[in-house]
Amino acid sequence: xxxxxxxxxxxxxxxxxxxxxxxxxxxxxxxxxxxxxxxxxxxxxxxxxxxxxxxxxxxxxxxxxxxxxxxxxxxxxxxxxxxxxxxxxxxxxxxxxxxxxxxxxxxxxxxxxxxxxxxxxxxxxxxxxxxxxxxxxxxxxxxxxxxxxxxxxxxxxxxxxxxxxxxxxxxxxxxxxxxxxxxxxxxxxxxxxxxxxxxxxxxxxxxxxxxxxxxxxxxxxxxxxxxxxxxxxxxxxxxxxxxxxxxxxxxxxxxxxxxxxxxxxxxxxxxxxxxxxxxxxxxxxxxxxxxxxxxxxxxxxxxxxxxxxxxxxxxxxxxxxxxxxxxxxxxxxxxxxxxxxxxxxxxxxxxxxxxxxxxxxxxxxxxxxxxxxxxxxxxxxxxxxxxxxxxxxxxxxxxxxxxxxxxxxxxxxxxxxxxxxxxxxxxxxxxxxxxxxxxxxxxxxxxxxxxxxxxxxxxxxxxxxxxxxxxxxxxxxxxxxxxxxxxxxxxxxxxxxxxxxxxxxxxxxxxxxxxxxxxxxxxxxxxxxxxxxxxxxxxxxxxxxxxxxxxxxxxxxxxxxxxxxxxxxxxxxxxxxxxxxxxxxxxxxxxxxxxxxxxxxxxxxxxxxxxxxxxxxxxxxxxxxxxxxxxxxxxxxxxxxxxxxxxxxxxxxxxxxxxxxxxxxxxxxxxxxxxxxxxxxxxxxxxxxxxxxxxxxxxxxxxxxxxxxxxxxxxxxxxxxxxxxxxxxxxxxxxxxxxxxxxxxxxxxxxxxxxxxxxxxxxxxxxxxxxxxxxxxxxxxxxxxxxxxxxxxxxxxxxxxxxxxxxxxxxxxxxxxxxxxxxxxxxxxxxxxxxxxxxxxxxxxxxxxx
Length: 850
Fold this sequence. Notes:
Rossmann fold; two-stranded antiparallel ribbon; elongated; single chain
């Protein structure tokens, strides 16, 4: 699948409608370009302050940070490009960066470089000059270079490159005024530059030949600099070749001739021509550094300053200590974001529940047994939305911690540590964090896991991670696992929980390998290039800003889509509904319950007139609202506030549900609470009937012949289908469907166990259900996030269909094998575990032909 349009895919100039709409310039445009960890984002924050916006580049999932600032009464747009080491199209970020540069025609390109690693940064600078851009070189983190004893001659560097150089310290706001002044002068044309033109010695005649050949075909020389295009062809850039074929109207003779010249050059000199080009750039960069940078000569100074990061890395990247420290960091992130963040939802949920109750009060009142459509529909949408909003504390902490890891420099080291293992399975070192957040062992959430996959630079590995992250054990899966283990594996709880905790990561690794050698094997792979930046202390402002930005993106993107999907689920669970005869039966039972109520309180009760007729329904709804408000309050002083609020709302009703010494009120209170319980039971039974007769319920029954291969009946099917909206609903749905014994106060475990024994549902069936649930498609929120991250409904539907098929096959094989061998669920669990481990280990040695 093609995730984005490369800039060479169009006849020049390179615009698709989406990109053109996004970058049509009405104001001067400044673009920040630089390598990762060069402080580019910090410099962007320094220029724009709070005037920022984060979106996506058209057709891709790479963040596009844009902002504005004013200088000399001119409003200037600023775009922070993704961090890139070069303009060669190895990774998605590199393709996006060069695509935007050529498409947007920026007025000024600010090339942000790490002053302490200037030679490494020169590679991109030289490519920008070759591509025809006249950048301003922002010599960032100049303080770090000074501490290392490096002295950079700014004026000589300007002479060597032929462009302006501005020393900056982004996190300290130093160099801001000078940089803005230079940008302003370049926009107004006050500064004229004579940039360096690199010479490639032995291949200069070949470059001249290509330039002359293409000059006759490219109508507008401003489309692409011909020299740069010639270099790209010699480097073997496939997109450049495609563009040239388009210019030459599919005449391959020219490119074939160039290929022959390259072969001849390589035979003569004994090395690849692209290596020769890279070597020339390396030599040019080294010559510039030699002229412009003075390194420390004092050995003591060199040891005390340059190796500070290396001293830390000797511990953190030690073969033995690195995994231990990584586990500690992972535990802290997991504990603070998932565990502590989840505790915070105890405070946010009452607020959201109060908001829900407030909106419910504005809707039509609840009916006796069924609610008006407007109320049911509105509350369904609100419940869906606030369920997602309840994750905000988790995400805020999570994104803040990720920002800290990025700013300190440890995020790059996580990828370095894990890449060797993950690479065997088609994953990336940076796949570690998404798996952790999704719940490698238990208790995570797949939504932040999928979101965290955005940081993976390798497109194929990113997709493999996104598609396997939902296999992890999110918090919402735990209730069903706990239910099954307590019923069918009560004597082997420890082993069963260990199995659940580890089988998912084993399966995810195996599935990732299978995907990367089949379905996504043609996706672009980027070489693992990882610069380990120096350690830095993060700033509070930067961490908070990025955490808020990312939370806001989550709320906007997920919130806008969830409403549409919630409507679909609402329809599937509600229609066609129960028939009129069933409805009449429940109405008759409710009327009988009302008659019993009135008989118990007596006709002479002084409150009879106040609670008869329509007032009884008002009292029932009043009591229901009161109970919901008490739950939302969390107890304590808030409970007293709820009591005051409802006393003011209706003092008479309050005295009836909270009677003092009034005998008539006490009699009503006792009888009324029984009536309330009966009404609640009737509504619950009607809900059960509605589920059974709904499209979703009928689908569960229809699928029973198929799912029987895994030992599932229609009730299990309905529970699994309903859990697509939210994993937690699987247990709630089972509670509705397994009603027999509820009136006798039997627990759900006891009711399922009793019915299972009667109908032959054994521990083998339970194991198959656990396996299917582990591989089951992602929940609604995760599916939406997969759509957001992949920018494709195709991959969203694939993430639903593929795990369903895989889960049914795996569950069916486990159930069939156990039945054939006539063994119990616990023995089949051991056999399956060993088999899965062996298969996954073998897949790690399977090579990808591509």
